[in-house]
Amino acid sequence: MNISNPAKASDFKSDLKPVWCPGCGDYHVLLSMTKALAELECRPEEVAVISGIGCSSRIPAYLNCYGFHGVHGRSLPLGTGLKVARPDMTVIVAGGDGDGFSIGGNHFLHACRRNIDLTYIVMDNRVYGMTKGQPSPTTEPDWDSALSPGGTGLSPFHPLVIALASGANFVARAFSGDIKGTSNMIVEAVRHPGFSFVEILSPCVTFRPEQREWKSAIHPPTVEPTDDPARAARRIMTDDGFNVGILYRGTRRPYRIGDGVASREVGDLDTAFAI
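RE: above sequence
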């Protein structure tokens, strides 16, 4: 990296124009990410953003860095493999609540458990926006819609609780409308060793216009971040879903990645599996 000529936020913007709906919170998340990468003094060639399927998973195309638009729910395995193979790179995995917590839910659990040094950003709008408004894992049980009259009646998935219980080393929540606050949160997450999880409340005003009121519901935490999982659990379980800030900073040692030098030759493997 050329320290004398650091990259600017604009250097991380691609030439493609985002095609999200007007008012989508993901526009602000994109701005926050470019600002964060500039603040981290990264170069575009040192960063990889991996995603799955969904509105928010378009984000690698709008960034000027390495990117991979994977299949539904499989972004975390892709990001994990890349970080293990290239520990020198800054790896960010980005997606939505459907992609990350439904078909990708099992990968989410084990990515937290492995505690590899990467950052997972989930833009949570509590709805499947790309497929026209079905309830997602984080949708409130009484949300009434044409596709779920009267609501699903199902208990919503609580990503912060699951992340903490599964072993994530950094757990936080941000609001997309607060570009500076979200950018700072991403910087903190990337710098913290181990698996960092940031839930970003990102309104889908097309299918859930009532989410315009989120900007009035957001409030800062009443206590400082903690490294005590028990204290963090009590705090997360009793919040109203609109507490933004860093909730937990763990001290667990990240997964140890080797030096990239193979300890066995391909021929050794052929011999081991010979019949």
